[in-house]
């Protein structure tokens, strides 16, 4: 049985921890101390780290963690070679915690951005997909980002989605402005507001939910996606 925990970090990041027994896998550690504290509290041994892309708020804690846990394997794209012990590539498959992991190409936000589908059930997507939104396209390669969203949309509706930021409330405000009125969207906004008022995470979401509330995942063409993404940049 796998358990998945969010560790809040920096301003609005989540570092995800997958735990099975006393073994753990860490996703996008932007800081090391919160991770070390969490591992010590629950007496977990970190065996691996998954990196989605080369931004400091996702990699800033890696070197300290490697120093503190010399056995730690760090998987990531070529762009994070300075931090990784294992370079992985789109469509590659490997196993951690006795679970299959598939690497999904999800560029656009950065060059080489990757996402990880664990056990066909849990998607760790960094900044490629958020609840109600997606990452800014810093590369200006809108086609790559749109293609990534199409790959996500092709996954099973039940797949749980674990983005790396708590952006749900602001994303849903934009969704409300650009999508037709929807009971699902309204209910999800109310849910997000309630959870944040309690200082609780709004995540994970699911692919099925995102197909209903996420304007970027609902976009049918590259032109529509590009227009929406540029509109959101200035929202």
From TrEMBL:
Question: Which cofactors is this protein said to need?
Answer: Zn(2+)
> What Enzyme Commission number(s) apply to this enzyme?
3.1.2.6
Q: In which pathway does it act?
A: Secondary metabolite metabolism; methylglyoxal degradation; (R)-lactate from methylglyoxal: step 2/2
Q: Where does Zn(2+) 2 bind?
A: 57-58, 127, 165
Q: Which UniProt keywords apply?
A: Hydrolase, Metal-binding, Zinc
Catalytic activities? an S-(2-hydroxyacyl)glutathione + H2O = a 2-hydroxy carboxylate + glutathione + H(+)
Single Gene Ontology BP term? methylglyoxal catabolic process to D-lactate via S-lactoyl-glutathione
Q: What class of enzyme is it?
A: hydrolase
Query: Is Coiled coil one of the keywords?
Result: no
Q: Where is the Metallo-beta-lactamase domain?
A: 12-165
**UniProt GO MF annotations:** hydroxyacylglutathione hydrolase activity; metal ion binding
Record's InterPro entries?
Clx_II_MBL (IPR035680), Glyoxalase_II_hydrolase (IPR050110), HAGH_C (IPR032282), Hydroxyacylglutathione_Hdrlase (IPR017782), Metallo-B-lactamas (IPR001279), RibonucZ/Hydroxyglut_hydro (IPR036866)
Give the family per the record. Belongs to the metallo-beta-lactamase superfamily. Glyoxalase II family.
PANTHER family assigned to the protein according to its UniProt record, in alphabetical order? HYDROXYACYLGLUTATHIONE HYDROLASE, HYDROXYACYLGLUTATHIONE HYDROLASE GLOB
Subunit-level organization: Monomer.
Q: What does this protein do?
A: Thiolesterase that catalyzes the hydrolysis of S-D-lactoyl-glutathione to form glutathione and D-lactic acid.
**Name of this chain's protein:** Hydroxyacylglutathione hydrolase
Task: Please give the organism.
Answer: Muribacter muris
Q: Which gene encodes it?
A: gloB
């Amino acid at each position: 049985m796998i358990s998945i925990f969010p560790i809040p970090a920096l301003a609005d990041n989540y570092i995800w921890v997958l735990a099975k027994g006393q073994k753990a896998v860490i996703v996008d550690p932007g800081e090391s101390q919160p991770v070390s504290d969490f591992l010590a509290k629950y007496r977990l041994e970190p065996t691996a780290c998954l990196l989605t892309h080369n931004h400091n708020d996702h990699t800033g804690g890696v070197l300290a963690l490697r120093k503190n846990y010399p056995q730690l394997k760090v998987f990531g794209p070529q762009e994070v070679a300075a931090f990784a012990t294992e370079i992985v590539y789109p469509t590659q498959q490997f196993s951690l915690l006795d679970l299959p992991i598939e690497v999904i190409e999800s560029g656009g936000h950065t060059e080489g951005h990757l996402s990880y589908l664990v056990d066909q059930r849990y998607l760790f997507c960094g900044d490629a997909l958020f609840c109600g939104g997606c990452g800014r396209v810093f590369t200006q390669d809108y086609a790559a980002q749109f293609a990534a969203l199409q790959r996500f949309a092709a996954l099973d509706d039940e797949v749980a989605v674990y983005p790396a930021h708590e952006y749900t409330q602001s994303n849903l405000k934009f969704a409300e402005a650009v999508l037709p009125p929807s009971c699902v969207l309204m209910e999800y906004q109310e849910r997000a507001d309630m959870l944040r008022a309690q200082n609780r995470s709004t995540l994970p979401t699911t692919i099925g939910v995102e197909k209903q509330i996420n304007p970027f995942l609902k976009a049918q063409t590259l032109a529509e996606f590009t227009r929406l993404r540029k509109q959101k940049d200035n929202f």
